[in-house]
Amino acid sequence: MTRAAVFDVDGTLVDSNYLHTAAWTEAFRQTGHPVTGRDVHRALGLPGHDLLARLLGEEHDPDLADTLRAAHKTLYATHFERLRPLPGAAELLRAVADRGWRVVLATSADGEELAALRRAIDADDVIADTASADDVNEGKPAPEPVHHARSLAGDVPPERTVFVGDSVWDMRAAARAGATPVGVTCGGLAAEELWAAGAAEVHADPAALLDALAVSPFGR
């Protein structure tokens, strides 16, 4: 049977979390609603509307939200040339694919941003598909993004799906979907936070997971 290897992108395969944090923080500053970088960083991984609700409050002005999203998109685009893969990202994807897993990326990025991320990873030859947050009604930590990624891999059952991510939202989404959550700390969160969110195991980065591949869920 086919097996699905689902990978978050920002902070998991590409070293982009702090660039996103800088862009969001500046977008908030420009609109007169300053927030701390720490609060932005801890909200990363949520869909855009949930991130804004967490930082602005549930009853925020929708026009302000649109302005913030547009500002973030413009500011973040200035960092595209600075995007770099995290250690072992491409090698991990190729090793997993060589073991017979279908590799699917799970990201809210699209258009030029997604193209920039894929250039940074440089493993298009083994990426079977990309699951976008725009394709589901509820983003992480809801399980729907993981279910959608499984469908793109060929309706793979949950027990044959591994989700690798760097946020507590990734771990919760994977656990709720019945997939195996694997955490990486290269996005900036502590291992203890990922364990508490349901991770089956936690590694420092893609290279560390690659080193342990034989005894990881991908090997077992």
TrEMBL record:
Region (Disordered): 132-153
GO biological-process terms attached to the record: DNA repair
Alphabetical list of InterPro entries matching this protein: HAD-like_hydrolase_sf, HAD-like_sf, HAD-SF_hydro_IA, HAD_sf, PGP-like_dom2
Molecular-function GO terms, alphabetical: phosphoglycolate phosphatase activity
Keyword tags: Hydrolase
Recorded GO CC terms: cytosol
Source superkingdom: Bacteria
Protein name: HAD family hydrolase
Organism: Streptomyces lonarensis
